[in-house]
Amino acid sequence: MNWESSIENFKNFLRLERGLSQNSINSYEYDLNLFKNYLKSNSINISPLECNSETIKRYLYSELSTKKTRSMARGISALKSYYNFLVFENLIKISPLSDIDTPKIEKKLPEVLTENEILKIINSIDNNHPFSIRNRAIIEVLYGTGIRVSELTDIKLSNIFFEEKILKVKGKGDKERFVPIGNVASNSIKIYLEERISNKIEPKYSDVLFLNRYGRQLTRAMIFKIIKDLCEVSGIKKKISPHSLRHSFATHMLKNGADLRSIQLILGHESITTTEIYTHLDKFHLEEVLKKYHPRSKN
User: Fold this and answer.
1) In this predicted structure, what is the pLDDT of residue 145?
2) 3-state class of 170 per DSSP?
């Protein structure tokens, strides 16, 4: 078995058995190709089944030791998953990475916007801009529903249910879920749809909600740029991304009394432990919770 065919089989496994998104599969492939190219450039002519622990350790020391912890962890994780797949397929007996630990990554929480900063961003939208109504709807939907940027760009008109006030979105691993949508976000979409009719729309993207000036589906990169530009105009110095709006959504929901389980379902997290990263509330709020609910803190 050569590297090309084994990596293709692994990609099919990730897609069909584990249900990973194409972006995740591309990341695995990228890291595996780095290892494959290292072998080639060092004239190490071995098949995936012949690779041993020493070869991989030399690669990690030579190519990944100078990289950031996150990049190193991702590279090791990709190799581990790949060789675990070969074990699962009974192609090898033991993984050459069985005695190699993945470095622990300190989880960095994205910046959180305050409610006032959200308003600043929305109010900074120039009404004379040709896509001001669309951009306002984008911000309102991201903040009003907590969906991912990839889920936003993929929203279909046929998956918006205004009467029921829900959206059907496709999340990680192509898993679909229903997400509630509030009045402000819902009305923003309706206003945008009135304008959208007069814009250019390519037939292929006629069912996609958010379109660019050419009538095609907006990219994730374009959403990043829209948000970055609005933050600059509104004077917000924080490092903001579309995920910051998702993070702010969850944080504000929690601060205003929503339970963690409900937030988990809305965000589409498989595990409640993933949702728990949003419990980093400010000290003032925690102090108020303690005073309100602990018997020794009252009065």
Assistant:
1) 92
2) strand
| Answer CATH for 115-289 from 2.60.40.10, 1.20.1440.230, 1.10.443.10, 1.10.10.10 | 1.10.443.10
Give me the pLDDT at residue 167, please: 92
Q: Which CATH architecture has domain 3-88?
A: Orthogonal Bundle (1.10)
d(CA 273, CA 266) in angstroms, rounded, equals 15
Where are the domains positioned within the chain? 3-88, 115-289
Strand 160-161 to 166-170 pairing = antiparallel
Report the candidate in 44, 40, 66, 67 with the shortest Cα–Cα distance to residue 54: 44
- Rounded Cα distance between 179 and 28, Å, is 29
Q: How big is the chain by its Cα radius of gyration, in Å? A: 23
Catalytic residue set: 148, 172, 243, 246, 269, 278
Q: Is the pTM of this model over 0.85?
A: no
Structure tokens at 193: 């749809």
Tell me which residues of the chain have a pLDDT lower than 50. 281-282
pLDDT for res 225? 94
Other Cβ atoms closer than 10 A to 261: 10
Element (H, E) at 179: strand 176-180
Structure tokens, 146 = 């907590």
Start-end of H helices in the chain: 3-16, 22-41, 53-59, 69-88, 115-123, 132-145, 149-153, 183-196, 220-234, 242-255, 260-267, 272-275, 283-293
Q: Do 165 and 210 meet the contact criterion of CB atoms below 8 Å apart? A: no
Q: What is the pLDDT of residue 99?
A: 83
Q: Using CA atoms, how far apart are residues 99 and 259, in angstroms rounded to an integer?
A: 41
